[in-house]
Amino acid sequence: MAADRQVQFAGIDPRSGFCAAARTFYSTRSPCSLPPESLPMTAAAYAFSLLSSPLPDRPALVESATGIAVSYPSFLAAVRSLAGGLWSTVGLRPGDVALVVAPSRLDVPILHFALMSIGVVVSPSNPLSTPEEYAHQVLLSRPVVAFAVAEVAAKLPRHVRCVVIGSDEYKRLASDGRQAPPPVVAVKQSDTAAVLYSSGTTGRVKAVAVTHRNLIALICTHFKNAEMAERQAAEAGEEPRPPTVTLVPIPLFHVFGFMMALRSVAMGDTAVLMERFDFIAALRAIERYRVTLLPAAPPLLVAMIKSEEARRRDLSSLLVIGVGGAPLGREVAERFAAVFPNVQIVQGYGLTESSGSVAATVGPEESKAYGSVGKLASDLQAKIVDPATGEELGPGQRGELWVRGPIVMKGYVGDDEATAATVDSEGWLKTGDLCYFNEDGFLYIVDRLKELIKYKGYQVPPAELEHILQSHPEIADAAVIPYPDEEAGQLPMAFIVRQPGSNLTEEQVKDYVAKHVAPYKKVRRVAFVTAIPKSPAGKILRREIVQQALSMVASNSKL
């Protein structure tokens, strides 16, 4: 811990980071050297400022399926050229919002950086969403233009100007030599850099405003963690690691994928992009491109443990798996370590509302703390708050995790009420997750106070599915719960009360929901019941339904 921090907070326990007087946990990591907040700077400019001179002699981006690579000089030139076209031809200006709807292709990081470099707000969206989901997102973020792949363009609201990625119009934005480079714009770090869509527990998605300062702080944290890991390796007498090659199987519209691409460029690494995730293709990519870092959700580790193909492939280059998106159980972590003893598991925890990582393990020793998501990131503070009493708790005590620091979002776009309920007047972000810190400052996620279902790392809000189900004429009542699944983490399972006389089937229920939502939100299991258990206030008692679901399966297995 930094000496100045020890002086300022003399009562901080150096092991746990807990200050009994302030009832607050402080990061025990050394602080980051963030640029002054008053200095105008975009996240893109900051990332580029960190690149070595001369530029790294390895690819910035590689397309997994084809092997097409983009060097760092070509990447920077493409970003600057496209930024000029966005400014002079499209007429984009700082503060404008641009919706980006595309799978993870080489064009997408170039477009993200070009937009951020001129102060335009990037708003990445899932290309598998439905027209009604896009309509809601557009209502929230109010983009002045959309950049979308051809197969998605027709699903976007017609009043939004759309430029098709890959079209002649799009190519001219970057290749027309008559266009002057954009002028230098003074973008404040406090300005919004991106609007990311996050599912809420009360219904439809929210639009999370992330600032340039948020992203700069996250890049700083990644650098700090990398320096710490390198120092620990050197002290242990290990050979220096090769340059990082990151396979990015996570979509770039997800906060995890968005941040991994930004991090990779800032650190001068190579990012191998997968347009859509396929397990066997991912194993091939690790072998072909000598991937060293794989960010993944827990179901991927389960698949690797069980896969004969994973044992046949040469995965010797893989050094680290960065686990996020959902909690990783101790049993899975231990099984993975037994099968792949040379791969270090780095666990982390973050939210869209925290722009990414709140905590992570750093180095092999911390990675042995199975079940923990690591220690609080640099420059962050946290509280564990009793949800019932509001009491601020100490190490070993469970409560809702609150976080404060430079990574906390600006707020929810177009929803002041939700912002006020999530970030208080002192800047504390209420995560909605039940957690505790142990005596050594490791954070453990016990359960979600929020009711989001985590399907393969995606967030699925039960209330959204319930609203759709309840609109069906043959459904009297419905509830959706997370059903545990080793492969996916959790499955959306619907409990349905049919209308009298209805013979509605499981497949009809699944098909009805599938027409209204993106594929990852589909209902995967259905049970028909006579009533949905609810509290006196009418709130669905999900825990009771989960127990009921597990009991049903247990009973069937005994037959």
TrEMBL record:
Organism: Zizania palustris (Northern wild rice)
Enzyme kind, highest EC tier: ligase
Sequence similarity: Belongs to the ATP-dependent AMP-binding enzyme family.
PANTHER family: 4-COUMARATE--COA LIGASE-LIKE 9, LONG-CHAIN-FATTY-ACID--COA LIGASE
Catalysis performed (reactions): (E)-4-coumarate + ATP + H(+) = (E)-4-coumaroyl-AMP + diphosphate; (E)-4-coumarate + ATP + CoA = (E)-4-coumaroyl-CoA + AMP + diphosphate; (E)-4-coumaroyl-AMP + CoA = (E)-4-coumaroyl-CoA + AMP + H(+)
Protein name, entry field: 4-coumarate--CoA ligase
Taxonomic path: Eukaryota, Viridiplantae, Streptophyta, Embryophyta, Tracheophyta
GO molecular function, one term: trans-cinnamate-CoA ligase activity
The protein's Enzyme Commission number: 6.2.1.12
Domain AMP-binding enzyme C-terminal, residue spans: 464-539
